[in-house]
Design brief:
It is a single chain. This protein has a three-stranded antiparallel β-sheet, with no helix packed on it. The protein has a three-stranded antiparallel β-sheet with strand order 5-4-10. Strands 1-8 form a two-stranded antiparallel sheet. The radius of gyration is 20 Å and the shape is globular. With 238 residues, it is an alpha+beta fold. The chain contains eight helices and ten strands. It is 30% helix and 18% strand. The longest helix is centred in the last third of the chain and has 19 residues. It starts with a helix and ends in an 8-residue tail after the last helix.
């Protein structure tokens, strides 16, 4: 019933922009003996136990082979159900040479997002984003007078149904929840290493992990940490 109310509002003239707005979600319930994780999208939950990282959630985006296989199987007659636009730059490329010259052999090249659902969205699970869930909304026109989705023949293309996992809890466990912006630059091992050398409070650990991510992001993009921190939120910073 809630879904129908949201769709009704999204389809009204006043809420037209809501058709293109969505969000990933990651929810965790920590019990006395178990950890319940519900994830829809590309946020991730990482469990650190005895200095070893273990992911408690899967990534739901169009770059993941499992999600690519699922999309193609669910939309066999739509070649554009999955569109890959860019690939990770190989060593020897112009940007790679520039980064090596700027930062030396420790230069980090970020993974470039490559694949999108119907060429529009990376996450394959999210709240909102009605234009990829309902054919009638996909046919709505954008500011250029073109449909939001080209040939929406077999919607829905994405889902809001979360993937739920249950794991045992042990004393001393550390749980880190973060969006894709952090995991684009830090691996589970990176976060575990930061946690091993961080203060015991959750706030101190969060600040240390954030600082490590900013350091990697600044190196990968040829910016100083000071400039990156001072950059206002928006498309440029993303």
């Amino acid at each position: 019933r809630l879904r129908e109310k949201l769709l009704e509002k999204a389809g009204s003239r006043h809420f037209a922009k809501a058709l293109r707005v969505g969000s990933c979600a990651l929810c965790v319930l920590v019990g006395t003996q178990q950890i319940f994780v519900a994830n829809a999208g590309d946020c991730q939950a990482l469990l650190i136990r005895k200095a070893s990282p273990r992911r408690l959630s899967n990534i739901h985006n169009a770059d993941q082979p499992a999600e690519q296989t699922r999309l193609r199987a669910e939309h066999p007659n739509e070649e554009d159900a999955l569109i890959c636009k860019r690939q990770e730059e190989a060593p020897g490329g112009l940007r790679w040479v520039f980064m090596r010259a700027l930062h030396g052999p420790e230069a980090v090249m970020p993974k470039l997002s490559a694949c999108y659902v119907k060429g529009r969205l990376q996450p394959t699970r999210s709240f909102g984003d009605f234009y990829l869930k309902e054919e009638r909304f996909g046919k709505e026109l954008n500011v250029m007078g073109r449909p939001l989705v080209a040939n929406p023949a077999s919607a829905p293309y994405i889902s809001s149904v979360p993937e739920v996992t249950v794991s045992a809890r042990e004393a001393g466990d550390v749980l880190v929840l973060a969006s894709d912006g952090l995991w684009d630059y830090l691996s589970g091992e990176d976060v575990a290493n930061v946690a091993a050398g961080s203060a015991s409070s959750a706030q101190a650990l969060a600040e240390s992990i954030t600082s490590a991510a900013i350091k990697q992001a600044s190196r990968a993009n040829g910016l100083s940490e000071e400039r990156l921190r001072a950059m206002p939120a928006g498309p440029q910073k993303r």
